[in-house]
């Protein structure tokens, strides 16, 4: 059996707000509560479980996606001026994308200070 990452606990100040933020960015749904967690199923093999029982510690989460999914994400970002995003890591939240590694990428800051990185594979 190969080893795969199945789930990850994401510390949040408010698990429901944090889960809804990421799910909204990706066009996904927040799942039914699972114990103390607000789960967001990213794909068939990975769920992020948002947890507000402990102190929120900002982290970095990176997602590789296809071009169509990336374009849909950019459309949602452009429609919400309150969301901080940008080409980071050197230019911060400049509301632009980058071309690091030859693909396209963008960083998004969530309400808990997490940095989400979304990028495409090199064409």
UniProtKB/TrEMBL annotation:
<protein>
    <submittedName>
        <fullName>VOC family protein</fullName>
    </submittedName>
</protein>
<dbReference type="InterPro" id="IPR029068">
    <property type="entry name" value="Glyas_Bleomycin-R_OHBP_Dase"/>
</dbReference>
<feature type="domain" description="VOC">
    <location>
        <begin position="4"/>
        <end position="121"/>
    </location>
</feature>
<dbReference type="InterPro" id="IPR037523">
    <property type="entry name" value="VOC_core"/>
</dbReference>
């Amino acid at each position: 059996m190969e080893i795969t990452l199945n789930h990850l606990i994401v510390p949040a100040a408010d698990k429901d707000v944090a889960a809804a933020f990421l799910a909204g960015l990706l066009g996904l749904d927040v799942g039914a509560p699972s114990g103390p967690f607000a789960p967001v199923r990213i794909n068939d093999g990975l769920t992020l479980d948002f947890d507000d029982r402990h102190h929120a510690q900002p982290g970095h989460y990176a997602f590789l996606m296809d071009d169509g999914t990336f374009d849909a994400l950019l459309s949602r970002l452009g429609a919400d001026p309150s969301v901080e995003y940008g080409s980071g890591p050197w230019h911060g939240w400049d509301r632009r994308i980058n071309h690091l590694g030859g693909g396209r990428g963008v960083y998004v800051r969530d309400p808990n200070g997490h940095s989400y990185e979304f990028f495409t594979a090199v064409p």
